[in-house]
Amino acid sequence: MLVFRSPVRNVMLADAPLQRRNPLIERLSMFVTLGPDERAAVEAMTQTRRAIESGETLAHEGSRPDRVCLILDGVAYRHRYTSDGRRQIFGYLLPGDLCDTKFVICNECDHNVGMLCDSQIAIIPVTTLMKTMVQFPVIERGLLMMSLVEAATAREWLLNVGQRNAFQRLGHFFCELSKRFEAFGNQGFGKGIAMPLTQRELADTMGLNVVHVNRVLQRFRNEGLLNWSRQHFRILDFGRLAELSGFDPHYLRLDRGLPERRMLAY
Amino acid sequence: MLVFRSPVRNVMLADAPLQRRNPLIERLSMFVTLGPDERAAVEAMTQTRRAIESGETLAHEGSRPDRVCLILDGVAYRHRYTSDGRRQIFGYLLPGDLCDTKFVICNECDHNVGMLCDSQIAIIPVTTLMKTMVQFPVIERGLLMMSLVEAATAREWLLNVGQRNAFQRLGHFFCELSKRFEAFGNQGFGKGIAMPLTQRELADTMGLNVVHVNRVLQRFRNEGLLNWSRQHFRILDFGRLAELSGFDPHYLRLDRGLPERRMLAY
DNA sequence: CGCAAGTTTGACGCTGCTCAATCACTGTGG
DNA sequence: CCACAGTGATTGAGCAGCGTCAAACTTGCG
In which region does residue B62 sit, left (phi positive, over 0), alpha (psi from -120 to 50) or beta (all else)? Predict the structure, then answer.
């Protein structure tokens, strides 16, 4: 079995040094067209970088952060615990995602953001972010779009957990992840995607139990739909998996992204 | 059995004519402090009013609206159907709620908004909304806060559906509704709350089945926690219900609202 | 090598779903 | 005034999807 690191990191390192690519610029370019000034502004805003270890917490429920973090490389996850100790995962942050524009306005974080692997982040002071948004409305619009996609994804997850069975839930989730990675131009896509999740995380994402997740994953394997192993997955028959699980990528709004990205690639 | 109409309509009609109260002003005042000019602007923005019947659709999935609707009186609900015909309800819009600021930016509606009873709405052209937000940043901030609370509520629902059993889900939902109504100063609160829902809607909200919802409602009744009958409910023991269902109202951000509202009450 | 974390398996049972019938209430038309 | 239909609530029987518990196994790592 092929072993590789975070696919995103892979791309970054293989194609160009981390310093040369800015995932936030790429992400914003999926929704808006950035001019040279705007790119420079995003670049400037994301200069303060920092390594962060797996398991560390980027944002604590109840805290009042004065900065926003950008995932440059790695994966984070939003989550919260119930009073009786059950965990629900609300979403995963991939490179280019921000954590969290909203706390700035709300003044208070209402859930936790933890790291799933050793990662690189950029730290953006709130004041800098604000100034940049005021000066470049296009950037503001792009950030707004990003948060709207996140909200749409949250609705999709609610529908997923509320209305679909375990098989469909997991299928839908993997389709979504796969599309998101694809949109970043992940080179390793054909061979599989690395995602630092355990079956525990999958369970807490889908409102299921670890044992049952395990059994559904086996069914995926037996039916030739998907292989999950050692935090790597590979969808073998995307069309069928999408159909069986009712997946429609529209809510991710990746459609506009593709031509844009092609333009960015020179 | 006491019979009354929509409690909100009730309050409106009993306390002051609809024209005298603007639910959007009240709602914004929960998050920001509006000056006389800003109130006037909100007032001006919401002049175009219209009656709308139960069952009508305010927004269609896939449509590209050029206006935003404000619920003045009545209840709407956001929902979407899966490809196999199951419905998930994403949220309920009460007087003061907007449907939908986000579509403006996204340019496309990703779910439906339907009316649960005969209602009154105000129609705000997007251009007017934009101008008002630019001219009065406080209003923009208030609207942003409103959409953040909605996003936080969506997360709470995901946790609810993903991690809690049927009893807790329903209990949590009723606690939330009750708190939201309470925040509007609903006079009939002590006697019960009218909410134009069938058990079918409750089921599609909670990711449950109608039959099971019915049985849980009976259990609430038998345990002296809550009465639900003919689209009216009355929580008999809020404290216990909240505890049993793990409800913590923090995510609704009503805390700031209370002193504000008191000031508004003269 | 030995430990810790994660995965896999089996047995068992409960929560919640399906199907189907009945009841209660409301509005309609004759 | 009553018959009737439609909608929603309620009930029962039966069962399956998924959860719980517990143990074994596998993998990675110091």
Answer: left
Burial group, residue B209, by CB count within 10 angstroms (0-12, 13-18, 19+):
middle
Return the residue in A32, A92, A163 with the most chain B beta carbons within 10 A, the one to mutate for interface testing: A163
pLDDT at A177 over 60: yes
Please, what is the average pLDDT of chain A?
84
Reading the block at residue A22, the tokens are: 């800015």
SS3 of residue A9 by DSSP: helix
Search chain B and give the residue with CA nearest A81.
B159
Asked whether residue A138's C-beta has any atom of DNA/RNA strand D within 7 A, the reply is: no
Residue A198 has pLDDT above 70, yes or no: yes
- Residue B160 tokens read as 């609810």
Q: How far apart are CA A213 and CA A202, in angstroms?
A: 7
Lowest mean pLDDT among B34-48, B206-220, B224-238: B224-238
Give me the sign of the Cα torsion angle A178, A182, A186, A189: positive
User: Do residues B23 and B95 lie in contact, with contact meaning Cβ atoms separated by under 8 Å?
Assistant: yes
Distance from B47 to chain A by nearest Cα, in Å? Answer: 28
